[in-house]
Amino acid sequence: MSTVLQASPPSSRSPLQLSGLANALVQSGHLARAGAEQIQKRAVENRSSFIAELIGSGGMGASELAHWISRTFALPLLDLDAFDPARVPAGLIDAKIVKAYKVMPLIKRGNKLVVATADPADHEAEDKIKFQSQSAVDLVVVEYDKLQRWIDQNTQSASSQIAALAGDDFDLADLDDGTESAAEKENAADVDDAPVVRFLQKMLVDAVNMRASDLHFEPFEGFYRIRFRVDGELREIAQPPVAIKEKLASRIKVISRLDIAERRVPQDGRMKLRFGPERAIDFRVSTLPTLHGEKIVIRILDSSLAKMGIDSLGYEAEEKERVMHAIRRPYGMVLVTGPTGSGKTVSLYSYLNLLNQPGVNISTAEDPAEINLPGINQVNVNEKAGLNFATALRAFLRQDPDIIMVGEIRDLETADIAIKAAQTGHMVFSTLHTNDAPTTLTRLMNMGVPAFNIASSVILITAQRLARKLCQQCRTPADIPAAALIEAGFAESELDGSWKPYKPGKCSACGGSGYKGRLGIYQAMPISEEIQRIILNHGTALDIAAQARTEGVRTLRESGLVKVRMGLTSLEEVLAVTNE
Fold first, then answer.
1. Beta strands in 292-367 (DSSP E)
2. What pTM did the predictor assign?
3. Which DSSP state fits 44?
4. What sections of 5-122 are H helices per DSSP?
5. Pairing of strands 293-301, 212-219
6. Which of 182-196, 217-231, 272-286 has the lowest mean pLDDT?
7. Is 199's pLDDT higher than 90?
8. Are 198 and 172 in contact (CB under 8 A)?
9. Are the C-beta atoms of 40 and 18 separated by less than 8 Å?
10. 140 and 78 in contact (C-beta within 8 Å)?
């Protein structure tokens, strides 16, 4: 045990009133009365506590003192380092009491509240906790230094935590496109908490800079999580304080023109972020009520992606030639297929951007319009108002169109009108959710479209996937056995030693993932006369696929293996995104 502090010379002053803990230490002989009074006096002068001054003066160590208090007061001793911070209940004790008396609620069980303290002799603190929480209090002893760190972390204001996350040097920018109404600006003022605004803007800017496709704001019982989808994978970016979830949701809703008072049903909206006078990026916002608040997903809709040109999509030479030949035809139907998030919309808009000339009338129907292209007439489908894809298509045909783009063919009515448009002198682009190009034709037949209509209207089907690109700075050669390469789909003649597969490494450029960016894997299948004949004879997808192979059309797996040979992606990534 530590050395007993020496007494000071006698004084005529009345003795200083000692705290309960100081008295206990004096009575047990661990502190001299005069030494305890010196520490108590410093505590009063410094506006701190006796225990803080005792530990600070070196009279006793925090761990030594905690063990002594536990034995003396017959209370359990808890190591805070072994306690999960997520289990700490919020709002049971006012932050002012927590800071002033150095206490921390740990667990609430029925009418009992377990509270951590370094000084169980402070009965005033215990009485205040009982009064405010209306609960019986069970005390546990913890080390003072660890408790102080916990209090600093858990009682820091939401604003200060967000400001720290956002950074002091972040420049506030305008998140709207300058068209907010007076009422919307009045609503915005209610949630215009500067740290929240700064934090939201930083998240959006960081997401754009990281080339993320989506931002997820997710509330849970004990924490609040923000994740970005980068290169197809979700990455946790931040865990801001739970206290800001309502303000953050309200801010997003205001600038997305959503109802901030409605939290019971999903809502959809849009907002815009300006990057200087030359660049503006749209964001599509979707809210979803969950058990612990509203989950919000923001999708980044960067129009510049569609303006990068068809060469940036990653087509091989023969695939690009087939696509270019098809989209420049005066009429017919071109279908792009693949799962959600495979880049179908960007592909379609790349085609439209290429064909967008002053002498061409282009109309699109989407749910909703994701990319804004000047010169193209874009229509948002609104099922509630009676404006569905079929209705929009009928209206387009009375608008003298040259090119029509339908966001998705979902039913027979839409498919029927789109095919008739393709047969009557219009170029029609659309999407379907199918696994590959051959199954798209049988899907249309299963929807009820007559085989002769499919054969006479569809001119090209492109199936696609997005695979992650290897980081060119840290990729390393992969030692893959020849048998595994052959099983994946390589021909023995291709394993001639002229190339080598690569695997992901780790570096700062790619954030340690080994991948940076994504590339397209395509199956571009023109509808030849032989395939038309198979369709008319009600052939299966296997029949169509076999004929396509004889005509030199690669499968998605084969197209992916080409990217592996070029060192652009890994074999594992291609096997993951293609299924054969």
1. 293-301, 332-337, 362-366
2. 0.64
3. H
4. 20-27, 33-45, 50-56, 62-73, 95-101
5. antiparallel
6. 182-196
7. no
8. yes
9. yes
10. yes
Q: Are strands 332-337 and 293-301 parallel, antiparallel or unpaired?
A: unpaired
Residue 292 in tokens: 């612990």
* Residues whose CB falls within 8 Å of the CB of residue 310, separated by 6 or more in sequence, listed in order: 320, 323, 324, 350, 351, 354
pLDDT recorded at residue 580 = 61
pLDDT digits (tens, 9 = 90+) for 230-246: 888 888 988 888 888 88
Q: How many CA atoms lie within 13 A of 485 on its CB side?
A: 22
Residue with tokens 């980068």: 230
**Residue 502 CB contacts under 8 Å (≥ 6 apart), including other chains:** 470, 475, 476, 477, 478, 567, 570
Whether residue 314 contacts residue 520, with contact meaning beta carbons closer than 8 Å, is answered with yes
Average pLDDT (214-235) is: 90
* Per-residue burial over 291-314, b = 16 or more CB atoms within 10 Å of its CB, e = otherwise: eebbbbbbbbbbbebbeeebeebb
pLDDT at 303: 67
Distance (Å, whole) CA 282 – CA 304: 11
Q: Which pLDDT tens digit goes with each residue over 242-301?
A: 888 888 999 999 988 899 888 899 998 888 877 666 677 888 899 999 998 999 999 988
Q: 515 pairs with which residues across the strands?
A: 470
Cβ count near 552 (within 10 Å): 8
The strand pairing partners of 362, in sequence order, are 403
* Cα gap 87→80, rounded to integer Å: 12
The rounded distance, in Å, linking the Cα atoms of 2 and 5 is 9
Q: Mind listing the pLDDT tens digit for each residue in 475-525?
A: 999 998 989 999 998 988 888 888 999 999 988 878 788 888 888 999 999
48: CB partners within 8 A, 6+ apart:
42
Contact 200, 252 (CB under 8 A): yes
Q: Tokens 């225990």 label which residue?
A: 51
DSSP3 helix / strand / coil % (the chain, rounded to 5)? 40, 20, 35
Q: Which residues contact 318 (CB under 8 A, 6 or more apart)?
A: 524, 552
- Return the structure tokens found at 440: 């798209």
Q: How many CA atoms lie within 13 A of 277 on its CB side?
A: 0
Q: If you search the block for the tokens 């030594």, which residue do you land on? A: 64
Give the alpha-carbon dihedral of 382, 388, 389, 390, to 10 degrees.
Answer: -160
Cα–Cα distance, 262 to 9 (Å, whole number): 71
CA 369 to chain centre: 21
Q: How far apart are CA 578 and CA 216, in angstroms?
A: 26
